[in-house]
Amino acid sequence: MTRSLDRTEISLMAGLPVLIALGFVLPEWIVNYIQVSLGTGLVALGVMIQMRAGLVSFGQGLYFCIGGYAAGLAGKFAGISDIFLLLALGIVASVAVSFVLGFLLRRYREIFYAMLSLAVSMILFGLLSSIEELGSTDGFNLPAATYFGWAPQDETAKYALYIATCIPTILCAFLLNRYLRSPTGFIGEAIRENELRVEYLGTSAHRAVHIKYVLAATVSGIGGVLWALALGHVDPEMTNWTTSGQFVFIAILSGTGNIVAPLFGTFILEIVRVYAVEVSPNTWQMILGIVMLLTIIFLPKGLWSLIRKSTTVNTQRQKTSEVRPGGE
User: Fold this and answer.
1) What is d(CA 51, CA 38) in angstroms, rounded to the nearest whole number?
2) Using one digit for the tens of pLDDT, what is the confidence trace for 177-214?
3) Please, which residues have CB within 8 angstroms of residue 59's CB and are 6 or more apart in sequence?
4) For site-directed labelling of 14, which of 131, 157, 170, 195 has its Cα 20 to 30 A away?
């Protein structure tokens, strides 16, 4: 039996053509920020679905980097530039690594899960930084993306890549929302509240965490491929602890109330960072820290809680008007 679309899925389907249309009317610098934000937003989505189960990954940059480097290595050594093939390679590499590591990480919770994920991420950072053939700490460039043999040029290439970034991002968000509405997705919230009772009910918490870990890695790998193609470059900083911390920052800033929240949160963070650097080039990190502090204090459930509150208030007003005599 097929599950009906919820409000989020309808919004995603309706928002895709709007998002694509914005690429033709907005200034180029805003379009570039949207495109980059969509790539990193997918990684924040990976962090968010783990947070739904009470797990915080401080090493999500690992799969962000694996996806980007899978695309970069295919282009550098095999001459592959087709975006669909590069996305497939990023997915395969992320799934393979996460499936193996998942057997280890699924046994840990809380700070142990966070630190172990960070440790694995930093191992890759050290390896990539020491390999001179891959540019060491400088990384290397990627070829321009092609589409089943079609190689657009100039402005056409920019719009084609923008559209090719929007579609996978919205599709991933749609499928992840469908997953979170499924019985397996709801198990994550049960694990966060009481893992022991989940086991008593006959469900394997380890298996559920393993599935979440692989899904989070998959979308992060896709985000890494899209981000790398948008910038045309990869380097070890993609898997550094500062990059992974940024994804956690986005997830906390946005909140875990809706699958769309990290996508908006990523764009907001990019804009805040741009203006913070412009206002205070030497202390812009302090401004981001203040934003995080104020969000935690006044909006502990993230920026999305503002939208949820607004929606709840409007719904209550509508119900109140319906029960009044005469509809007044």
Assistant:
1) 20
2) 999 988 888 888 888 888 888 888 888 889 999 999 99
3) 116, 117, 118, 119, 120, 121, 122, 239, 241, 244
4) 157
